[in-house]
Amino acid sequence: MAKHYKLDRVREMADNDEDFVMALAAAFIEEVPEDAERLRKAVPEGNYYETYQAAHKMKPTVDLFELGILDKLIEVQDWGKFEKSDENIDAQLQIVLSAVENATKEIKADFGL
C-alpha cells in the first residue's frame, strides 16, 4: 500500500477522519488523471495556456498526496506559463504522467475506487 503516494499530509488535513480521507482519494481519482490527460495532449500541440492551466490545477493535489514530482510539474507549468518554445519539456512530462498513472492505479486499488 502507498508506494507511489503518501497519506501523511492527507490524514493530517483530514484530522484522521477516514471518510474525509476517502473523499480526498476519490477527488484525486476524479480530477488528477483528467488533468494529466490534458497535459498529455497540450504539450505536444504546443498549447501553452492549456498546459499551464492543467499543471497549475494539479499542483495542490499532487503536493497533498506527495507524489514526489512537484518540481517536475512546476517545470511543465512554467513551460506553459512563460511559453518556453525553446525548451523541450517532454522528459519532465513523462515523469509526471508516469507518477500520476502509478498513483492513480494504487489509490484505486487501496481505496476500492
From TrEMBL:
Q: Does the keyword Thylakoid apply?
A: no
Organism source for this protein? Winogradskyella poriferorum
| Residues recorded with modification Phosphohistidine | H56
Query: Which branch of life, at top level?
Result: Bacteria
Per UniProt, which keywords does this protein have?
Answer: Phosphoprotein
PROSITE patterns, A to Z: HPT
What protein am I looking at? Hpt domain-containing protein
- Please indicate if the UniProt record lists Phosphoprotein as a keyword: yes
**Boundaries of every HPt domain copy:** 17-110
List the SUPFAM superfamilies hit by this protein, alphabetically. Answer: Histidine-containing phosphotransfer domain, HPT domain
